[in-house]
Write the structure tokens for this entry.
Amino acid sequence: MGPDELASTLAELHQESWGWALSCCRWDETMAEDVLQTAYVRVISGKARFKGRSTFRTWFFGVIRRVSQEHGRRRRTLESRSRPLDLVPELPARDRPEPVETLAAAETGRRLREALDRLPDRQREVLHLVFYEGLTVSEAAGVMGVSVGSARTHYARGKDRMREWLSEEALP
């Protein structure tokens, strides 16, 4: 793939890549920016090479996942060396819904994201890839570096857990 085609393909995938980076970074925008930037640098510099064993999209999502894992390990190491601050971040103004209709949708989205964040990493990853990024379970398995059977198991267990948690929340 030539430089122009690579740049075009990465540009087409940017929105989906950003969503996947956010998910991999547990919705930490600063970390997701760093992760996505590092993934772009690795691809453009040739440190990460596409060999055509899957779709480019699946391969690139795998690169983002690996970079996020490296950043997470690095961050946990640094955090273990320093005392964490107990601060509650305020939502940016653009995330605050104003109309009543949007408020209900935002509440549903918040509940779904909280339930998704409670899942073990692999269950969370496969559900995000399938529901938010539109990948098949087989493609998600490729991104995650697990067998299709394992991805299917994580997918089914994750859906069951989320269904259980969300139905418990709905009870009076």
User: Anything to note?
Assistant: Confidence is low (pLDDT under 50) at residues 83-88. The chain has two domains: 1-83, 99-172. The domain at 99-172 is CATH 1.10.10.10 (Arc Repressor Mutant, subunit A). The two ends are 56 Å apart (CA to CA).
